[in-house]
Write a structure and sequence with these properties.
With about 400 residues, this protein is α/β, with parallel strands linked by helices. The protein contains 13 helices and 15 strands. Strand 13, helix 12 and strand 14 form a beta-alpha-beta unit. It is globular and about 70 Å long.
């Protein structure tokens, strides 16, 4: 293992490449690739990697990029890709197809605001619009977390108890184009961590079959039940993967969520990705002043870790969610999930804050204003809109 200064895109591309190369003694790897700001550098990195048994297929659209992944995965290859924003939107049909086909593709979603009007900065609406697809979703707060999560994603996705694709999301530009020091894995470590990719229902020349044909309602219902069951299995598989990762790499990656200073907290703030890093620093400073506040970094969005979230919140009766996304007519999407989780508790004060939409800065001043607002509340209101001017 070596330490290097890397951008988020480099860290993601490097992890994808090593994961693909680790399958060289099986069916190899394949990626369908189409560039879009701010993920293009990932595709460029993969295109220049000397795979022993793999291919990066450059295509004419994001829809085709996922189509390549579907075809390659059905042949038994380890597959991966990356996209952002309207590229993800254009890919939607095949994103749903890959999930329903139970193909363990890993996709990096470099979060960027959907348009029009056109905006290239971070907003999580692009990956979260896929929340009803049969894909797991992880949200990463740093370059190291991103690189580790990519490797973890393959391990969980390809487990026979799961066999579902994964989105690994990072903040566009805030993570993708900035540099941090990361401990980069070696090929030998990745080889040890990732078993050969085995897709039980891959196409076989000696036993021809079709995929995606017509089914009856009862068959579709059972299909969806199987997906739900696999999502529930993912929590167990994730913990096993964390144990194995720690043995091989010497550090333990984050699980479904991370609780910080929640043991005695009266008010808890929930955030994800880089917002959580800023929130943590503010919580540290406010705790020094004697305020009983804590935070939870939400990492796993699908399946949503309801049991783990309830345990992390504990006896606290005041919860605020910071959402860098917006569901029109409702509010923040993470807030909706937290509200469903806490719906049994009539005494809970749960407030949603929409912050950093369209790439607006989420500063300590902005978060301090949210904490101040929360401290004065006696009841919840409709989602509060907070801009970067606090």
């Amino acid at each position: 293992m070596s330490r290097s200064l890397a951008t988020g895109n480099h860290a993601a591309g490097h992890a994808l490449a090593l994961a693909g190369e680790a399958n060289r003694n099986a069916r190899g790897c394949c990626a369908g690739a189409y560039p879009i700001t701010p993920q293009t550098e990932i595709i460029e990195y993969l295109s220049g990697f000397p795979f022993s048994k793999g291919r990066i297929v450059l295509v004419e659209s994001e829809h085709s990029a996922m189509g390549v992944c579907i075809g390659a995965a059905l042949s038994g290859a380890r597959t991966f890709t990356a996209s952002s924003s309207n590229g993800l939107a254009y890919m939607t049909e095949n994103i749903f197809a890959a999930g329903y086909y139970r193909l363990p593709t890993v996709m990096i979603a470099v979060n960027r605001t959907l348009g029009p009007p056109w905006n290239i900065w971070v907003d999580q609406g692009d990956s979260l619009m896929m929340r009803d697809a049969a894909w797991m979703q992880f949200y990463c707060d740093s370059h190291q977390d991103l690189q580790d999560t990519v490797l973890m994603a393959f391990r969980v996705a390809e487990d026979k108890r799961v066999m579902l694709p994964v989105i690994v999301a990072m903040d566009g530009f805030v993570t993708s184009h900035t540099q941090m020091v990361v401990d980069e894995p070696t090929q030998e470590q990745v080889d040890a961590f990732l078993p050969e990719c085995v897709i039980p229902h891959k196409l076989k020349h000696d036993h021809p079959s079709t995929f995606g044909g017509m089914t009856w309602p009862s068959e579709t219902e059972h299909h969806r039940w199987e997906i739900q069951h696999s999502m529930e299995n993912a929590m167990t598989v994730l913990e096993e993967a964390r144990d194995e990762f720690e043995k091989i790499f010497g550090r333990r990656p984050a699980g479904a969520l991370e609780a910080f200073e929640t043991e005695d907290a009266e008010t808890i703030f929930i955030a994800c990705n880089t917002m959580a890093r800023t929130l943590r620093n503010v919580v540290i400073e406010r705790r020094k002043k004697g305020e009983k506040i804590g935070m939870i970094r939400s990492k796993l969005f699908r399946p949503f870790p309801r049991k783990e979230l309830l345990e992390a919140i504990g006896p606290a009766k005041r919860v605020a969610v910071l959402d860098r996304n917006h569901s029109p007519g409702s509010g923040g999407i993470f807030w909706q999930e937290v509200a469903a989780t806490l719906s049994h508790d009539p005494d809970m004060l749960l407030q949603d804050y929409l912050v950093g939409l369209g790439g607006g800065d989420v500063t300590p001043e902005n978060i301090n204003a949210i904490i101040d607002d929360m401290s004065e509340r006696t009841t919840a209101s409709d989602p509060e809109w907070k801009d970067d001017t606090a």
